[in-house]
Write a structure and sequence with these properties.
Elements: H1 10-20, E1 24-25, E2 27-32, E3 38-43, E4 46-51, E5 54-60, E6 62-63, E7 66-67, H2 69-77, E8 79-84, H3 90-95, H4 106-110, E9 114-115, E10 124-125, E11 130-142, E12 147-159, E13 164-165, E14 168-169, H5 171-174, E15 177-179, E16 185-187
Length: 205
């Protein structure tokens, strides 16, 4: 079949793309409002864009005519934390996507324990196996909906003991959750290891 995107509205295109670009990692983001409310929301348009310094990108859309609280908070404070959630946290990740008024903290609403960060003021989730303290580097807007691509530098990694072996994360032990189309999630299936291929070193270290 053929589908002409110029004949579709944004919502129908979104449903198509989120079913095609799968599975997607989930950035589970805490951010702090100007009034001190700790916000929590998941974003599955998420990837890394640089290794030195480490930089991550998330795409934040709108809720109605306004931008989501996460975008407001990050642009206001320039600090946030991106978490990677594992399977035991799947329900909490999903429930944190409910749109609350800005004065409601999803963290408090869900009863999630938090810890102080070392280099940003935003608190991190104690239960998440990975938390990455971030500072805003750049914000770009795309498309008719003006979705905001927010790029931040990771200034501190927090990784659960036992997940890193010889400098690499044990992905199976991490057991991350991924997003697919609709209110559906996935976990890692069979992991296939192939022969190492030659690649030009990314740096001297």
């Amino acid at each position: 079949m053929r589908i002409d995107p110029t004949e579709l509205g944004a919502e129908r295109i979104y449903r198509l793309m989120t079913g095609i670009v799968v599975p997607r990692p989930i950035a589970w983001v805490t951010s702090l409002s100007r009034s001190g409310v700790l916000n929590l929301a998941p974003f599955s348009a998420f990837t890394f864009v640089s290794q030195k310094p480490p930089m991550l990108a998330i795409s934040v859309g709108r809720k109605g005519a306004d931008y989501k609280d996460t975008a407001h908070n990050i642009l206001d404070t320039e600090e946030y934390v991106i978490h990677i959630a594992d399977m035991p946290l799947m329900s909490a990740v999903h429930d944190s996507s409910v749109e609350h008024p800005p004065e409601i903290s999803e963290v408090e609403h869900l009863g999630l324990e938090t810890l102080d960060c070392e280099r940003v003021r935003v608190r991190r989730l104690a239960a998440a196996p990975v938390a990455m303290e971030c500072r805003l580097c750049q914000c770009l807007e795309f498309g008719d909906a003006r979705s905001r691509l927010i790029v931040g530098e990771v200034v501190m990694f927090h990784i659960r003991d036992g997940l890193v072996n010889d400098g690499k994360v044990e992905t199976k032990a991490l057991d991350p959750i991924a997003r697919i189309g609709g209110p559906r999630y996935a976990r890692l299936g069979e992991i296939v290891t192939l022969n190492t291929v030659f690649q030009t070193p990314k740096s001297r270290d």
